[in-house]
Amino acid sequence: MNFVFRRDELLVEEASSVLPDLDACVRAGVAAEGLQPVWAAPESPARTVHVEPGVEPPHGYAFKKLRSLFGVFDDERMALAGRAYQIAEWARTHRFCGACGTATVRVAGEFCQRCPACGFSAYPRISPAMMVLIRKGDSILLARHTTNAASRYTALAGFVEPGESIEQTVHREVYEEVGLKVGNLKYFGSQSWPFPHSLMVAYTAEYVSGDIRVQEDEIADARWFGPGDPMPDIAARISIAGSLIRAHLPAGWDAP
């Protein structure tokens, strides 16, 4: 089982989205020894690699956006593809020591690139991020992000900063993005989100005080939605944002 990535695209058969065999990998310019095991055990059947942006797919294959394969791959295959992407990205970005610039060496039996000169060790990066759905009576707060203003409405989210707990991040991000105070945080769930290496940790929270004041460089629109309001286009069910919102829909809403 081979995962060959070109940036955030995965090499698959054009018609069936089946992963490439070793012969197809070789035709894409990937040597067998260049494929990294997706699991720490060297005998792992799943292998992964990043290729250069200019690499063209072999005949009958195509590079497809990893996001576009949600719903094409089953959940297990999609989770494995997400892991493979993160491992390949880690291997690609840690070929040289970040401290002294020496070429690193893979440590057997673990995901570690170690510098033979200064001993610096680099492990796969995981970036924790919070997500929170704020409730006010029978209403929920949903927002569209400035980076993609035509996108669906979703819950607020933000990355954890150094020295913060995830709960502290919730309070800071909510106040920065929409100017509200919240309380009664409750854990909902988590999801690995490999774009490129996030771990989304989702909560609900209750509105405490404040009026919506959007952070314009982050939020295009934010508003309360409740019973009787038209239902906006919301985050897809495949993401934890979609699950979080669907678990707390206002009365009368029925999301697919």
UniProtKB/TrEMBL annotation:
GO terms, molecular function: metal ion binding; NADH pyrophosphatase activity
Listed GO biological process terms: NAD+ catabolic process; NADP+ catabolic process
SUPFAM superfamilies: Nudix (SSF55811)
GO cellular component: cytosol
Enzyme class: hydrolase
Gene3D superfamilies: 3.90.79.20, Nucleoside Triphosphate Pyrophosphohydrolase (3.90.79.10)
Needed co-factor(s): Mg(2+); Zn(2+)
EC number of the protein: 3.6.1.22
Keyword terms: Hydrolase, Magnesium, Metal-binding, NAD
CDD domains: NUDIX_NADH_pyrophosphatase_Nudt13
Superkingdom classification of source: Bacteria
Catalytic activity: a 5'-end NAD(+)-phospho-ribonucleoside in mRNA + H2O = a 5'-end phospho-adenosine-phospho-ribonucleoside in mRNA + beta-nicotinamide D-ribonucleotide + 2 H(+)
InterPro entries according to UniProt: NAD-cap_RNA_hydrolase_NudC, NADH_PPase-like_N, NudC-like_C, NUDIX_hydrolase-like_dom_sf, NUDIX_hydrolase_CS, NUDIX_hydrolase_dom, Znr_NADH_PPase
Domain Nudix hydrolase: 124-247
Family the entry assigns: Belongs to the Nudix hydrolase family. NudC subfamily.
Record protein name field: NAD(+) diphosphatase
Organism: Achromobacter deleyi
Gene from which the chain derives: nudC_1
